[in-house]
Amino acid sequence: MALKNRVVGVCALVSCAMALGACSSSTSASAIRRNPTPELRTLHERSDDIRNRYALMRNENWRMFWEDWSRVMYTDRASRLTPEPMTR
Questions:
Q1: With a threshold of 0.90, does the pTM exceed it?
Q2: Which pLDDT tens digit goes with each residue over 42-79?
Q3: What are phi and psi of 82, to 5 degrees?
Q4: Could you give the CA distance from residue 38 to residue 33 in angstroms, rounded to a whole number?
Q5: Cβ(58)–Cβ(66) below 8 Å
Q6: Is the dihedral of CA 68, 71, 76, 82 positive or negative?
Q7: In degrees, to the nearest 5, what angle opens at C-alpha 49 toward C-alphas 47 and 39?
Q8: If 0-12 CB within 10 Å is exposed, 13-18 middle and 19+ buried, where does residue 45 land?
Q9: Phi/psi of residue 46, each to 5°?
Q10: CA–CA distance from 33 to each of 38, 40, 80 (Å)?
Q11: All structural domains of the chain with their residue ranges
């Protein structure tokens, strides 16, 4: 019974300490007023979102370049198995 009381007491102390410690903040109100959304670079994108968009754009551009290059150099021989529709 004494062990159970100690466990309950320790849990109560830990939960009180966590509740009181959760209210503190290292960011001042003036810093929040100066920049309320510090993680956003544009109206709706973070820096990671911008880098992801550019990486996707570069990847698609290079894939389109190599597809066009193979058409210019006549290395893509059209067949009935191509994924794009062909004119006859």
A1: no
A2: 899 999 999 999 999 999 999 999 988 887 887 666 66
A3: -70, 145
A4: 11
A5: no
A6: positive
A7: 40
A8: middle
A9: -85, 175
A10: 11, 15, 62
A11: 40-75
Nearest to 75 by CA among 67, 63, 83: 67
Look at residue 41 and give its three-state secondary structure: coil
Residue type, 23: C
Measured CA to CA, the distance from residue 86 to residue 15 in angstroms comes to 69
Q: How many angstroms separate the CA atoms of 19 and 84, rounded?
A: 61
Distance, in Å, from the CA atom of 26 to the CA atom of 37, rounded to the nearest integer, reads: 16
In one-letter notation, the amino acid at residue 4 is: K
